[in-house]
Specification:
The complex is a heterodimer of chains A (385) and B (78). With 385 residues, chain A is an alpha/beta fold. Chain A has two domains: 5-195, Thiamin diphosphate (ThDP)-binding fold, Pyr/PP domains (Rossmann fold, 3-Layer(aba) Sandwich); 276-384, 3-Layer(aba) Sandwich (Rossmann fold), CATH 3.40.50. Helix content of chain A is 38%, strand content 21%. In chain A, strands 2, 3, 4, 5, 6, 7, 8 and 13 form an eight-stranded mixed beta sheet that branches. In chain A, helix 10 links the parallel strand 11 (284-288) and strand 12 (310-315). In chain A, helix 1 (17-28) packs parallel to helix 6, helix 3 (65-77) runs parallel beside helix 4 and helix 11 (323-330) packs across helix 12 (346-354). Chain B is α+β, with helices and mostly antiparallel strands and 78 residues long. Chain B is 13% helix and 21% strand. Chain B has two helices and four strands, in the order βαββαβ. The chains are: A alpha/beta (385), B alpha+beta (78).
């Protein structure tokens, strides 16, 4: 299905990542956002609040992040595509409702423009230290999808992708930006609506009397109905059966939670996107994501000029983690070098997937700025020895 | 024998009708009686059909209705 042209700001623009993210949401069909604006994500909803009334939607500034993250889910069950935007401190408050969205299979998008933490931390400075929180921030066993744009153009592209994945799998999808990507202004090309693929909601075709809200037909993703259409269903965060009714038995729990996990895990190869460059025959592969991938590019280029065989693996999808790719490379390379704006988060996944077959070297940074490429280069040179 | 029993807190009701609409076994109907605020609370028209699922209780915005399971006599079939 093509995008609704009313929401698509076609043209070549010079805008920052936050604004590009907003345009991505509009292009994807988002017509509702609830938020409690926070630096460095404010510009996303600032633009959305101005733009969305012109295409027939609305933005509500809520009383806090808990309210924002649940209001958007109400909008989804009412039939809208909806999202919210926040940064670390708000992301912590939204954790509860990310779990709720996972449990109730509510297709929605959370954007986290990461800043230095913990707590209030560094409101205007970058970090990538919410990566594990994105995966494990809510309680219980659940799966989410998380994407990591590294440019304003990707903020646009991946926000659309996030909405599409949310609809396809009925999961909350997290767009894990960082302050630099959010506030960096670059060229962003927005194609015409007929060139933007939008995944429609998986709406049920069943008659009202035959509809079971959490019944699946082979592909593990149930069909949805919206409030007010005459379908009678119950949505709850409690463990529920196919009818949506609470049913708190170990059997129902096992069936439901395994399905919620498997619907994502079994599709990892399809969901997990990455960019690779010269990883064949490489001695060292630099694994990075977000803004750090662009800093690392400088170090990779310099190392190659010095004659080193350095490959690049950029994570576009952080979760589900492309562990198959890492495991495959681990048998061929000497080492992985993992720079990131935290003291070691995604590197744990690299280390786990490499399973001791290749060295995994951390290049941590506490946040507040980006790495010095010279520093990453030094580690690459040491690793290649 | 009914598996469940509905309890209605008449004075809390604002007669939105959710319980009547969503009851899977159609136990309820809005009554013609008034509560002291002038609303028509629901009443039970088919007590034998109540399964005690408490969906009415989960839907009610005002905690004005709830259902409970009735213990079945020994030997009764489900």
């Amino acid at each position: 299905m093509n995008a609704d042209p009313r929401g698509v700001f076609t043209g070549v623009h010079f805008i920052d990542g936050d604004h590009a993210c907003c345009e991505g949401a509009l292009a994807a069909g988002a017509r509702f956002a609830a938020g409690y604006p926070i630096t460095p994500s404010t510009e996303v909803v600032e633009r959305f609040a101005a733009r969305v009334p012109t295409v027939g939607g609305c933005f509500i500034q809520m009383e806090d992040e808990l309210a924002a993250s649940i209001a958007l889910q109400g909008a989804v069950w009412g039939g809208a595509k909806a999202f919210t935007v926040t940064s670390g401190p708000g992301f912590s408050l939204m954790a509860e409702h990310i779990g709720y969205a996972a449990m109730t299979e509510t297709p929605c998008v959370f954007v986290d423009v990461q800043r230095g933490g913990p707590s209030t931390g560094l409101p205007t400075l970058p970090a990538q230290a919410d990566m594990m929180q994105a995966r494990w921030g809510s309680h219980g066993d659940y799966e989410i999808i998380a994407l990591c744009p590294n440019s304003p153009q990707e903020c646009f592209d991946l926000t659309i992708k996030a909405f599409n994945l949310a609809e396809e799998f009925r999961v909350p999808v997290l767009v894990m930006m960082d302050e630099v990507v959010g506030h960096m202004t670059e060229k962003v090309i927005i194609p015409s609506a007929d060139q933007i693929e939008v995944v429609p909601r998986k709406h049920t075709h069943k008659r009202v009397d035959d509809y079971l809200p959490f019944e699946t037909n082979g592909d593990m993703v149930p069909e949805i109905a919206h409030a007010g259409e005459g379908y009678k269903f119950h949505v709850t965060g409690l463990t529920h059966d196919e009818r949506g009714y609470p049913n708190m038995t170990p059997q129902t729990q096992d069936k439901l939670i395994r399905r919620l996990q498997q619907k994502i895990r079994s599709a990892t190869d399809r969901i997990a996107m990455f960019e690779e460059d010269q990883v064949e025959n490489a001695d060292v592969v630099v694994v990075s994501y977000g803004i750090t991938s662009r800093v690392a590019q400088r170090a990779i280029d310099t190392a190659r000029q010095q004659g080193l065989r350095v490959g690049k693996l950029r994570l576009i999808t952080a979760w589900p983690f492309p562990e198959g790719k890492i495991a495959e490379l681990a048998t061929k390379v000497k080492a992985f070098v993992v720079p990131e704006l935290n003291l070691g988060q995604m590197v744990r996944e690299v280390e786990r997937a490499a399973a001791g077959k290749a060295r995994t070297i951390r290049v941590p940074h506490a946040g507040g700025g980006v790495h010095n490429p010279e520093h990453i280069l030094k580690i690459i040179v040491e690793a290649a020895r | 024998m009914a598996k469940g029993r509905v309890s209605i807190v008449v004075e809390r009701c604002k007669s939105c009708g959710f319980c009547v609409e969503f009851c899977p076994t159609k136990v309820l109907a809005l009554s013609s009686a008034f509560n002291s605020k002038g609303y028509h609370p629901p009443h039970v028209v088919h007590p034998e059909k109540c399964s005690g699922c408490d969906l009415c209780g989960m839907y009610c915005p005002d905690f004005a209705i709830y259902a409970t399971k009735v213990p079945q006599p020994a030997g009764a079939t489900q």
